[in-house]
Specification:
2 copies of one chain form a homodimer. By secondary structure, the first copy, chain A, is α+β, with helices and mostly antiparallel strands. Chain A folds into 2 domains: about 5-195 and about 365-450, Zn peptidases (Aminopeptidase, 3-Layer(aba) Sandwich); about 195-250 and about 295-365, Alpha-Beta Plaits, CATH 3.30.70.360. Chain A is about 35% helix and about 20% strand. Chain A is built from 13 helices and 18 strands. In chain A, strands 1, 2, 3, 6, 7, 8, 15, 16 and 17 form a 9-stranded mixed sheet that branches. Chain A has a 4-stranded antiparallel sheet with strand order 11-13-9-14. The longest helix of chain A has 19 residues, at about 5-25. The two termini of chain A are about 15 Å apart. Chains A and B meet through strand 10, helix 6, helix 9, strand 11 and strand 12 of A and strand 10, helix 6, helix 9, strand 11 and strand 12 of B. Strand 11 of chain A pairs antiparallel with strand 11 (about 300-305) of chain B. Chains A, B: This is Peptidase M20. Chains A, B: InterPro entries: Cyt/Met_Dipeptidase (IPR051458), Peptidase_M20 (IPR002933), Peptidase_M20_dimer (IPR011650). Chains A, B: Keywords: Hydrolase, Metal-binding, Protease.
């Protein structure tokens, strides 16, 4: 098999310049002020796919952000691979914690810093360049290729779900290939065989019809923040478990085999504490960190606010307070069922004098694939050849809501072949992508496509 | 005694125009961006005092915002009254809840809407115009008058305390007169004989050294918001009491006499609930609303924030979270002692994996005056003459931290003669001043000065 290393080495600077250009477009799907930026990122992607030699490049408008499609179907009798990724990114606040601005990509210490560097523009870019490399070198691809790239992954893929249903035939494939997950660590490749589901809700508490002076009213009226704090504190028990009735009903206990597989990840909890500068890890009693993150459901408060947040003191009794909550789901947990249970708990625990409103949001199911699937073995060999190590099969704590839908609607296995690192601050300030995995990722994808 | 009603009626429009000019200066003492505005408000006040006929008008710079002094000492053998007030105002957010902008004064329904309309520019303005009226009509005042007006009342009067100590002789007076409190209701005058003390602190929780992705880490690491929520929820028990060890040590139980006096306020709790659109009032078990607010200490969360607050969902585990807390104090509670006790509680209840920092802020002691003091009787007669009703002696839940200092350092009784209404949204959006009490306040002050 041909060695593509010199090809990529020669073009490395040009490739990185190109990626930086894409990363400098603030395609934050969650914020309507960036709608135009998201569109620009889609157009940039369509151009890049054309330059790579892909055909039938289309930007499909949706009710939200567009879906970009492209294909190259000139390998008759060969399997078809559908490559999925997303060109939208997470919001960037708190902005003051970024060392360089999130949309001014900067390379330091062989790491590319920018929002979207690893999640997911950087990883998706590897596929475009791997295909461009094979096409321009060999004038043909070893498989048929389709790209389906969305701009709403960070906001739950609301329009991609019906798009897949409506374009089943167009998207038909023998496998779906996604790079939006992680290695275990530098030179420790991993193939993800399970993803947690995700559901979200927003809780608002209202007390009086206006903020009140804490001198005139303090001690005699409900305080929206006190009510919300009491409500939220009731969601977990003292053993770190979610205290919502029936929350664990559809979660099976871990078998000894599964515990053994998690142990193989070899996560050093002491080292993790040092890295994160934590005095203690925290979670459900009776599970290791790997088990908690890989196989247990969660309920997290992602944001909360109410009352006075400015400089100084304001002696006010706030009349409204808000919280954003997401749950990660596993096994047979159904997002709608969990949202209903959490909402029921919230209504039941609302303190006197408070009125609560709940808005349900995203709903993505958990996904798993059998680690013995032949395609995963091929992917494993590709990693081994480039990284010099066989990948571990892991279950990842993250959620890619669309994975379960692809698998179900297209009846195709989904290969989750990630090149990120767990330390790359995705969804947080100073997101980055280690360029060692940029280089190795390009080669691994070429290897995999050729072994397909 | 001469009737000043025609005098004030004739000048009403001009007086309101003048007051609106002052109210349009955003003198928010808590926000450093408004430092220059606070200075402009002080200069406006100095000019107004000069126009009123006061002498020795001085703007004293301090380490913070200036103190304005003026006097008129041409009544030999007569008592001296020191008039105190403040020209600074509270912050204005949440701005979107204001019906008209806080610094564009607007009269609707005989109410003057603006930040500071009732607290305290509007009320202080009454004294300036009352004195101007007597001076311009009778060319003499019945008493010697001094003004001492600060720009830091809303941020705990940090520089006025040492100023009073350093200028004891200059400020010497037989009584201190303050209009920064409330009537019981329209045509129900009240004289405040007790004020709660105030202390403040800010709590910050830190967990990991960066925000983390809730997929990769969720369920396995501490969440700063969970930790803060648990910490804050521990500050009250299920009976609405502050759960901090020793918090009530220096609070005496209410006597039957005191309960009877509170009952006289005649607060209709059902009506209060309707006015505030509350399903239920809330507070310490075993006390009425009036008792809770007038004679019981509190701990209130005034603001809280952490994590993602924007539009949409962000699956982040926040690494920091913040809360602002104030306590209202009564009886012999010492602000420093209470802050230390609350801080000790917070440190003791910090959940695993969280690091807490506490910054102590304001410290003001509670104040009381004997309701049978002769000056309070005179003030009562002045109200009765204008309002047609004898005032009730009340203990107010609010705090004017400097009152206790004036009384102690100058050895003078402090007469708290307020013209605000409990419904005027002070410290909240849509603060206003009912102009009926603007008109009656002017006459009441003239009456009181003449009876002194």
């Amino acid at each position: 098999m041909m060695d593509y290393a010199p090809y990529f080495a020669e073009r490395r600077d040009a490739h990185l310049r190109e990626l930086k250009e894409w990363l400098s477009i603030p395609s934050i799907s969650a914020q309507s002020v960036h709608k135009e930026d998201v569109r620009r990122a889609a157009e940039w992607l369509a151009d890049a796919l054309k330059r790579a030699g892909l055909e039938n490049v289309e930007i499909h408008p949706t009710a939200g952000h567009p879906i970009v499609y492209a294909d190259h179907l000139h390998a008759p009798g060969k399997p078809t691979v559908l490559i999925y990724g997303h060109y939208d990114v997470q919001p960037v606040d708190p902005l003051h914690l970024w060392q360089t601005p999130p949309f001014e990509p900067d390379i330091r210490d062989n790491k590319l810093y920018a929002r979207g560097a690893t999640d997911d523009k950087g990883q998706l870019f590897l596929h475009i360049k791997a295909i461009e490399a094979i096409l321009s070198t060999e004038q043909a691809l070893p498989v048929n290729v389709k790209f389906c790239v969305e701009g709403e992954e960070e906001i739950a893929s609301g329009n991609l779900h019906p798009f897949i249903e409506a374009h089943k035939d167009k998207l038909a494939a023998d496998a779906v290939l996604i790079s939006d997950t992680e290695l275990l660590g530098p030179d420790k490749p991993a193939i993800c065989t399970g993803l947690r589901g995700l559901c979200s809700l927003e809780v608002s508490v209202r007390t009086a019809n206006t903020d009140l002076h804490s001198g005139t009213y303090g001690g005699g009226v409900p305080n929206a923040l006190h009510a919300l704090v009491s409500l939220l504190d009731s969601l977990h028990d003292k053993r770190g478990r979610v205290a919502v009735d029936g929350f664990y009903d559809d979660v099976s206990e871990l078998t000894d085999e599964m515990r053994a597989e998690f142990a193989k990840k070899g996560i050093d909890e002491e080292k993790l504490k040092r890295t994160l500068e934590l005095d203690a890890l925290y979670g459900e009693e009776g599970y290791t960190f790997a088990e908690r993150v890989g196989a247990r459901p969660t309920l997290e408060i992602n944001g909360m606010y109410g009352g006075f947040q400015g400089e100084g003191t304001k002696t006010v009794i706030p009349c409204e307070a808000h919280a954003k909550i997401t749950c990660r789901l596993v096994d047979h947990q159904d997002p709608q069922d969990i949202l209903d249970k959490v909402e029921r708990h919230i209504r039941k625990h609302t303190p006197p004098g408070a009125k609560v409103s709940v808005v349900q949001g995203e709903k993505g199911r958990p996904y798993t694939i059998d680690p013995s699937h032949p395609l995963l073995r091929q992917a494993g060999s590709a990693y081994e050849r480039v990284y010099g190590a066989r990948p571990v099969f892991t279950r990842d704590g993250g959620s890619i809501p669309i994975v379960e839908a692809f698998a179900r609607v297209l009846s195709a296995p989904v290969v989750l072949m990630g090149f990120g690192l767990p330390t790359e601050n995705l969804h947080a300030p100073n997101e980055h992508f280690h360029l060692d995995n940029f280089d190795k990722g390009l080669l691994t994808i070429v290897e995999f496509l050729k072994r397909f």
